[in-house]
Structure formats: structure tokens, C-alpha cells
Amino acid sequence: MARFTFSWEEQGCGKCDQPLQVRLTRRRTVFSVAYGKFVAIERQGHCPIHPDLPPVRSKEISRIVAPGCKMSYDVIARVGLTRFLECRQCEEIQIELSRQYDIEIPVRTISELSQKFIAYVQVVHQESIKLLRRAMQQRGGYVLHIDGTCEDGSRVLFVCFDSLSGQVLESRKISSENVEEVEQVLRKVRRDWGCPLAIVHDLRKSLINATGIVFPGTAQFVCHFHFAADVGKDILSSHVDRLRNLFRRTKVRPKLRALCRSLKKFAVAGDSGEHILSSILEVQSTKDLRHLSTPEAVKGTVHALASWILAFSHNGDGYGFPFDMPYLTFYDRILEVDNLLQKVSTNWFVRKRGPLGTLKRLKDILHIVVVDEHATFRTIIADMKRDQKIFEQLRNALKICPKGGTQRRNDEGASNLLSSSHHKAVLTELRESLERKARRGSPSQKACNIVVEHLDKYWDYLFGHVLKKRPEKIVVPRTNNVEESLFRTIKRQCRRLHGRGHVCRDIDDMSEAAPLVLNLRNTSYCEIVYGGTTFQSIAERFSTVDPIAPAQLLKDWRQDKIS
């Protein structure tokens, strides 16, 4: 273990500039990534002429570790980056520090250091607002995205995000997205960052009202993805509920799962390790096909067909309901497999325990859906597909979530440069046609009225995304997916850290400044605030912070959690 002596000898009294005298000498063990574990011997000085002044400490040691602390700034930075950007568990971080830097730290201490890291990040963020605003003005301003996320029973993590720079501006914990609390957060945003060029949010009335109060005259836009999804849910939810309940009564899924479990051992060929169906499809001659067509192969084929039907929930483009309709896919796959079975055999009067017994079992399970004696399935499917066409018309007019898209929920739809006048003309034509159809008493009258009502309600918030064309073009994103993606990242990190599917406890326990850590993935932000993206540059910036500020933040968070 090395020993380092840190002294104030090059400094003088702040008032009279006279040489200082030794007041006391303190020793402490310090853990550092750069220097490992060492003993710091610090000599503090004082001025005999001005005894009321605080003791003069070494500037060199203050750049390495905070007063009274054992963990250096680079350890805090290393732990925080590993914890929140690499999503490593405390035990993994403990092993890494031990192996790479020969630093032995308890798991509980690592957890405390990660919270301290968030506190330092928030303090540095607040101290850097002037620098960030200067860069913001050079870009022409900022576009404010506001939204909150929560789980069942948790408080709301409300985040304000700038889509032009890709930076989190503000993050707060509020009880709910009511007008009063949202207004308080937005007033702080206006004080720190000024008025935005435009504001994007979802369809909540409280967000529209609070934004209008704090930023009067600023352009507001509702997210086109949320708009289309809200219309689709209002149109299709009742049909999906009826279809889901009917599937539950018929117990088709449990029966198919039981069939798959019983045939699981026949699914994989013993010699190749591949699915038996792959071996059958790859044969080149009738002789080989006859050789492979064993009772075991039949069972493996039935397993493949039943598994394909049960994989209906994985079909779609990843946009979620109502853009993807899993139960409609379930029904279509059942019909497709039944048609396949009808083609390969015209006589199903076979014994249940014979070579084709498993095929008969599969046919019997699908029978109740295909035959549909009371025509309940067919009626629900017909109503669903009829109203789905109305929703598809709106989806195509909005040019959002195209079929076959590869971006899943991050899809921004058609180009943001979509002409506002052309887009308005398309939606006007759609609205008039649906209104005429509703007046004629069409079977889809309810669906048409839902689309018309939503268009009338949010018409003023749907157009005008091109704010500035020269000298540099500024376009407002048509969706709020950039912030939704941030929330998905936070929740995915929580699941990686703790292994729990439900993250209600994580959202409640999370520090309100946790989303600010994601700014460290932004190279431009790190260059402005920290002078680099490495943990060394982050640690160096932490050393310039008054340690009292992050300590007070940690205390406030603990009090807030207790209350």
C-alpha cells in the first residue's frame, strides 16, 4: 500500500497572503482507479493572524477525493457509468473493480456510490445550464417533448426532453400528470431553458392545458402515433375483447399447449438436433420421404403446426395493438392449418391411437373454431375486419406505422418534411368521406364517428411541423417516440439490474434525476459539460463540485422516499 503526502505549503493566507502554519495532520485510506488503494496523509494549515478562517487544505487531494470520503471521484464515475450505462449489477461491478483495479468494495457501498453518482450528475447538469443554452441557441432553439411514465401504483417520472440535441433537460417525480404539478415542472423548464420552438406531447388534456398556461403562443403538437393508437383502440377494443373471451370459453389455446407439451419429445430429430419438420422438407426423393414418414415424424409435424398457431402473438410489425391484431392472426392461422389438413386427407374417420391419431387430435381442437355452429366467430371477425378498414384509412392518411416497417415502436412514420397543406387536404377528404358514410347509416357508423370526433378534437395540433426552412431547416418530430424510447430504455435497464418483470418498485425507488444519466450517451453533451466521454473526464468535472450540494440532494431524496 503506497503513501502520499498532500500539503498546502505553496498556498498562503487568503487575506494577508502570509505563510501558513501546520494546524493538523490527518490520514485516511483512499480507493482510486488511477492509484489503487493508498494512504493519504494530508497536512492542513492555518493563518495565526486570522484564526477564524477555515483550515487551508491541499488542492491536489481535493482533485482526487472529496473531504472526509474514502472513494475517489474516478471510482464514483466508474461505478456510475458501469451501473447505469452498461446495466451491470452491483456484484458484477464488485468483481470488475477487484480484478482490474485491485479495489475491494462491499456491494452495499457500490449501491451507495451509484446513488451518489446520480446526485453529482444532477449538480453538474444544473451548473452547466449556461453552457448548454449557448449551444442550444447556436442550433436555433429547442423542441420540447414532455411525457411521464409509471407502473401500477407508482409515482410518475416526468421527463422534459429536447429532440434537436437529444438531451434530457429536466426530470421530476410527481404524484400524477395533473395540471398543477405539470405546470410547476414546466415553469422551471422555462426559467432554466427559455421558451421552446414547439412542444410535443400525447393526448392528455392536462398536458395541453399546462403547456398553454406556461408557454402561451408556443406551437403545440400531439404525437401522431398516440393519436392513431387512441383512435384504433376506441374502434377495435370491443371486438378484440369479444374475440378474446370467445377463445377463452372454447379453451383452444390451453388444448393446443397441452398437445405441444405431449409431443415435445418428437419435435427434434435425435441425430441432427434439428426439428423433424426440417428433415422432411429437405428430402429430395420419394424413397427418402417414405423412409422419414414414420409415426414419430407425424407427431413432430403436428407439434410444428400447433406451435406455429400458438406463436400468433409474435406476428406483426412490433407496433403493438391496435396496429398489430394478434387475436385476428390467431384465428387466421387456425383456418390456415385446418385448410392444410383438409387438403392432405379427405377422410378423418381414423382411430385416435393410430399413426394419424395426433393429426385427428389437432383437427378436433380446431374443429370448434372452424365449424362455428352458432356463427359467433364469423360474426365477430366480420365486424372486426369491417371496422379495421376504417382504422387503416386513418393510418394511411396519417402516414404512420407503415405495414412491413422495421423500426417497431421507434418508427417515426413518413418523412417529417410531409407538406402541411397536402397532409391537411388528405385528412379533410378522409373526414368528409367518413362523415358521409356515417350519415348514410353504414354498419361502420360508430367507427366513422370515432375518427371524425378525434380529428375535430385535435385538428389544431396535427399540422405545421416545419418551423423554419432557412438558413437551417428545423422540423418538429411527428411523434413522441424519442421520449417513449427513453422510458423503454430505463425500464429495460431496471429489468436487467434486478431481474423483475414488473418495475413498479424500481420506478418508485428511482431517483428523479436518473434519466439525466442517459445524457452521458450523448457525445455533444459530454464534450460541452465534461470535456470528454471517459470516466476520467467525468471524475475531473465532479472534483470541481462543492461536495455539500450532492450530499444535500441525497438527503432530500431519502426524506422524499420516507415521506
Write the layout of secondary structure elements.
Elements: E1 2-6, E2 21-32, E3 36-46, H1 59-62, H2 73-84, H3 90-101, H4 107-127, H5 129-139, E4 143-149, E5 156-162, E6 167-174, H6 179-193, E7 198-201, H7 205-214, E8 219-222, H8 224-250, H9 252-262, H10 276-281, H11 286-292, H12 295-310, H13 326-344, H14 357-371, H15 376-398, H16 420-439, H17 445-458, E9 466-468, E10 474-475, H18 481-498, H19 504-509, H20 523-529, H21 535-542, H22 548-562
Parallel strand pairs: 1-3, 4-7, 7-8
Antiparallel strand pairs: 2-3, 4-5, 5-6, 9-10
Describe the overall structure.
By secondary structure, the chain is α/β, with parallel strands linked by helices. Helix content is 53%, strand content 11%. The chain has 22 helices and 10 strands. The strands form 3 sheets. It has a 5-stranded mixed β-sheet with strand order 6-5-4-7-8, sandwiched between helices. A 3-stranded mixed β-sheet has the order 1-3-2. Strand 4 and strand 5 form a beta hairpin. The two termini are 44 Å apart.
Proportion of helical residues: 40-55%
**Sheet bearing the most strands, described?**
5 strands, mixed
The global form is flat
User: What is the CA-atom radius of gyration, in angstroms?
Assistant: 32 Å
Mean pLDDT: 85
Helix count? Answer: 22
Runs with pLDDT <50, length 5+?
none
End-to-end separation in angstroms reads: 44 Å
Number of beta-strand segments? 10
Portion in strands: 5-15%
Query: Which strand order does the major sheet show?
Result: 6-5-4-7-8
User: What would you call the structural class?
Assistant: alpha/beta
